[in-house]
Amino acid sequence: MAESHKIHEGYSSKKPVPKVALKSILDPSGATEAKAKHIFKDRKHEDDDGQDEIASNAKDMVKGKEVRVTDPVTGEETTIKHGGDGDSDSNKGENILSIDYPPPDWDAHRAVVVDFTKSSIVKITLAYIGSAVIFHLVASLPLPSPFTPPLSERYPQIVSQAWLLASLITPSVLAYVLLFALRNKSQEDFENRVWDSERTRGLRAGNDLDGDGDIGVDERIQESAEWLNSVISGVWSIINTDLFNSSIDLLEDVMQASIPKFVHSVRIADLGQGSTPLRVTSIRSLPDSKLDDALAGADESVKEHLEREHVNVEVSFSYRARPSGSTAGSKAHNAHLLIDFYLGMKGVWEFSVPVWVELTGVAGTARARLELIPDPPFIKTTLCTFMGLPRISISVVPMSRALPNVMNLPVISTFIAKSIDAAFAEYVAPKSLSLDLQQLICGDDIKKDTEAIGVIVIHIIRAFGIKKMDSTQSSGAESADPYVTVAYTRQAKPLYSTRIIFNDLNPVFEETTAITLDANAIKVREKLSLQLWDSDRTSADDMMGFVEIDVLDLMRNKNEPTRRITPLSSPDSDGRPGSLEYTVGFYEKMAPNEKLSTDGLDPAIPEDLKQHDPDFREARAVALNDLEAAVLVTPPDPQWPSGILSVQVHEIRDLKVATQGREKSVIRSSRSEGEKGQDEGGEEQEEGEHLPSSYCTIAINDNLIYSTRVKPITASPTFNAGTERFIRDWRSTHVSVVVRDSRMRENDPILGIIFLKLSDILVNASEVTRFFPLEHGIGYGSARVSVLFRPVRASLPLNLLGFDSGMLRVRKVEVDGGEEHISQLRKCKVSLSTSSDSDAFSKKDARDGSDGIEWVEEQPLELEVHERYSKALTIVFKSTGLVSEKKAIAVLWLQDVVDNEEKVVDVPLWKTDDYDRLKQNYVPLDGKLDMWENGKENMTRIGTLHLDLTFSPGINNAHGNAHDSAKKRVQDEVDRREAAGLGDKVGEHAGEDGIAAREDNTEVSKEDTEIEEVEEHSSPGTYSDQSSPESGGENEGEGKGLLGKIRKKKRHATELNRQHKGVMQIKPARTAEWLKDNVEEAGHKVKDRFKMQARQPDVETEV
């Protein structure tokens, strides 16, 4: 199915950015073909058939070539020409008034007149005959008369003639009326048929050139529309250029993705439409293709699209610049772009090369399908497509004095032209652009619903019966290092990955994830792929097999999970033994609960001001249907805490870096008497070298998930970017939008943070759009951010509603069991470890407990936790001495712990020779090893371990230093938030008293497992921050002696450095820190290169 894009839809992993090859810029002879190959380039993992299709499409995109495509507007096969000549005869246009009327249907007109005449003659004849008979009978009757003798006897001839005359009056009147009606009927039918000929001429809008009795699309007249050009000419110069922001963003994305390495950034600094308007050279209406042919074999979405009430039109347009001089100033009355290229070494050295791009000519043809609705503005969705690449010509003038003032700089002009072609190619038939005109005219840019229609919850239980893949493993035993990834088959991008279980052919994972599902996946018949991989340290991981799940089958059985055992399919021709056991289900979005509806106003505004002062009344978002209206006045239901969260960053206003004191020149730095201490906010500038190059990152529960592109050197960046994610519990979730400044030779500083606790802002509505101030950074400004939450009908158990990261606090460890084992364990050191941290109880802390022996310290042991739902707390009892020996082990999987719940958890205590297998494979709290295929016989349970612990969600200052850049950025934001006193809000549960989430509906018992047969396939398819209640105030532990003073001074210096004060206010100090961090990060990357890692999903980016 052909792709259809939306006007505000940015590029993403689902819609990759088209790129322009450097070869096409340097080699003009092969430019268009090389560009076309990049436009149609698909993912590198596509099969051979897909590559053949790419090659064929690339050849079709060559300018001047005619291609046969399916028109998404009319649904017919048509011929388009890329970069066609805009001055051809077909674009000159005609006038329908010059065409003769088609001959009226005179036979039908004659039949109408003859039929009416015949009926009139019959009526007149019957009237005369009937009237004569009636009057004759009346005259023959013996009627009483006042005269004696009667008049009939006195004057018989006169009376007889009087009766005869009377009998003729009535039928004569009737005859006159019928003849008058016949004349009017004949004239009316004649005029109707003439006007019907005029209507037919308009509807046909062309001549039957081929004589087949039907006016095809190519035979329709392209009518001139000078009235429309007059309107365009009047409004062209006053159009708000903000309307073109979305198009400029797309062009920036294409250029940014295509620039060579020595150009590390590009920015469209200015857009001007000039005073020379675009002209419509011709316009015509279009018929639909025959519906029977168009709907044959089409999917449901296409059928629904073609069967709606609509109007099809085709518009040919052209633009030609007025003559101008060689300077940029003389070209201002023509449409133009001002583009800044930033050259140099990224992050080290750069300089700007501004160029003036004048649009000298455009010629093209577009078709539009206007979907009609009964309510104003009577047009809903408009589907637009270009009939071939428009013919575009530009001229480039350098704005830098260091460059020669020549026209059309060879490389730059070619690069810009190719980028414009690549952007236009995304909307050339059979691709299209969808415009919601009802939303554009009557609505706003605020999302009231998510793109996702629901979520798919997958619980990966285990794999069994697999075989070793890597023949180069040093271990002689038949083993593998398996892990499972979740992806859509066509995208092939991993959306989730389990942990790696080393040296095991029957791994037990017990991991749960949820991925969003949008309507596009249904349209292209996506399948969900669970892929089992064998991790390798030095080479590419091997796929051990995969399982494909039809998304449509899941939707037909929505809100009901199924537990399955599916044999693995092979990615190649070789057989793949083994099966995968999992639970999967699709859960739909829920409508807002009408019982919770409110007035939708901001609860932070006092009621007296809200009602009586119009300045405090918020501008209400426009709702176009009942669902949107309900979202704007109904908060989320606490009984359904899980759902889809959408976060959008629209724009930032008045963004600047704060200065301490007045901005001074290095040469003239003296202070004068009476001088003000700081500059006032007087003149506001949107552009300038001193302004930041900002970008935004979005984190949910301190888990970095999204990053926008950089907007170079502007105080009013427009992003219109965002993401949608599944969240487990909106009542405790927080969102952090961090605005950073992309800088050269230093770490990108935080300009400001927007901290949003969903339970605080989603009080009266499920959607909030507001300007939030940037706080706790080195800059200031306000950002417009939208937050939307839609619940899904999935009720997860309490232990799965928590954060991914946090702090585990263990207060006490107690063991009960046999006396023999108790006596051995009394002499042991108790080591507690997660994948991120470790600590221990000394054997000196052991003491007798109520049922056994316990270890307690004055302060609880604190352990960092990351990726909590795939990690375990391992408690190992080791003997002390020269040779340490493991006496027992207990494993608590952290997915079984509920957030912020102080509880004693009972964990089985084991003695075994295979401690590695016990640490990696899931063991439930009851100690039953039913899911284990092998190795159960080597496990001996010797007692029970009682852990008094609490999992505090979120990252705080107690977490150690991060090594990779993503975690460093999160830690930087957390430190600033802690300093601002926002740590107490993180992880805080805001559910209403007496209202609890519904019981779990996402798990299936083992008895209900569906065992599937082998199927043949052709191809393989959140950190947060909470202050410790035990940590006390910020100065606790610093002491009052010399050491305390040193700590206090160090903390104060850290705060100054964070605000770019103290030593960090000078550039060399920040550059030195940047060098140190880059060296450390490079060292950790080298170290991690030799570790086995799963195929984890990356942070989503705008480009």
UniProtKB/TrEMBL annotation:
<keyword id="KW-1133">Transmembrane helix</keyword>
<dbReference type="InterPro" id="IPR000008">
    <property type="entry name" value="C2_dom"/>
</dbReference>
<protein>
    <recommendedName>
        <fullName>C2 domain-containing protein</fullName>
    </recommendedName>
</protein>
<dbReference type="InterPro" id="IPR037765">
    <property type="entry name" value="C2B_Tricalbin"/>
</dbReference>
<feature type="region of interest" description="Disordered">
    <location>
        <begin position="1081"/>
        <end position="1103"/>
    </location>
</feature>
<feature type="region of interest" description="Disordered">
    <location>
        <begin position="36"/>
        <end position="97"/>
    </location>
</feature>
<keyword id="KW-0472">Membrane</keyword>
<feature type="compositionally biased region" description="Basic and acidic residues">
    <location>
        <begin position="961"/>
        <end position="1008"/>
    </location>
</feature>
<feature type="domain" description="C2">
    <location>
        <begin position="626"/>
        <end position="772"/>
    </location>
</feature>
<dbReference type="GO" id="GO:0006869">
    <property type="term" value="P:lipid transport"/>
</dbReference>
<keyword id="KW-0445">Lipid transport</keyword>
<dbReference type="InterPro" id="IPR031468">
    <property type="entry name" value="SMP_LBD"/>
</dbReference>
<feature type="compositionally biased region" description="Basic and acidic residues">
    <location>
        <begin position="1081"/>
        <end position="1091"/>
    </location>
</feature>
<feature type="compositionally biased region" description="Basic and acidic residues">
    <location>
        <begin position="660"/>
        <end position="679"/>
    </location>
</feature>
<dbReference type="Pfam" id="PF25669">
    <property type="entry name" value="SMP_MUG190-like"/>
</dbReference>
<feature type="region of interest" description="Disordered">
    <location>
        <begin position="958"/>
        <end position="1069"/>
    </location>
</feature>
<feature type="compositionally biased region" description="Basic and acidic residues">
    <location>
        <begin position="78"/>
        <end position="92"/>
    </location>
</feature>
<dbReference type="GO" id="GO:0008289">
    <property type="term" value="F:lipid binding"/>
</dbReference>
<feature type="compositionally biased region" description="Polar residues">
    <location>
        <begin position="1019"/>
        <end position="1030"/>
    </location>
</feature>
<feature type="compositionally biased region" description="Basic and acidic residues">
    <location>
        <begin position="60"/>
        <end position="69"/>
    </location>
</feature>
<keyword id="KW-0813">Transport</keyword>
<keyword id="KW-0597">Phosphoprotein</keyword>
<feature type="domain" description="SMP-LTD">
    <location>
        <begin position="221"/>
        <end position="438"/>
    </location>
</feature>
<feature type="domain" description="C2">
    <location>
        <begin position="436"/>
        <end position="566"/>
    </location>
</feature>
<dbReference type="InterPro" id="IPR057349">
    <property type="entry name" value="C2_Mug190_3rd"/>
</dbReference>
<keyword id="KW-0677">Repeat</keyword>
<dbReference type="GO" id="GO:0061817">
    <property type="term" value="P:endoplasmic reticulum-plasma membrane tethering"/>
</dbReference>
<dbReference type="Pfam" id="PF00168">
    <property type="entry name" value="C2"/>
</dbReference>
<dbReference type="GO" id="GO:0005789">
    <property type="term" value="C:endoplasmic reticulum membrane"/>
</dbReference>
<dbReference type="InterPro" id="IPR035892">
    <property type="entry name" value="C2_domain_sf"/>
</dbReference>
<keyword id="KW-0256">Endoplasmic reticulum</keyword>
<dbReference type="Pfam" id="PF25331">
    <property type="entry name" value="C2_Mug190_3rd"/>
</dbReference>
<feature type="region of interest" description="Disordered">
    <location>
        <begin position="660"/>
        <end position="692"/>
    </location>
</feature>
<keyword id="KW-0812">Transmembrane</keyword>
<keyword id="KW-0446">Lipid-binding</keyword>
